[in-house]
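#structure-requests
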Amino acid sequence: MDHLVTAVDPFVFRLSIFVLAVFVGYYVVWSVTPALHTPLMSVTNAISSVIVVGALLAVGVALASDDSGPFWARALGFVALVFASVNIFGGFLVTQRMLAMYQKKKK
């Protein structure tokens, strides 16, 4: 008997990985104790900095090579750049606030 093997659509495959990452990320972040929050934020800032580099490449490489490239790719790169920048800035604010909790109060 001849079995047909069909390939999974790449969009569906990537979407399923994204959905699984959202669920895993949700449960990992919400189960973190407050004492581990500051190291977690520093790792998040490091990951966001890598996202900023990728977003800058998505926005700027097409401009550097005199190729307009697809507009939607540059637009999504810009959105990723904005979101990652906000995440880094917010991470530093939260880390500063968490570290301030462990400092002695000034009299």
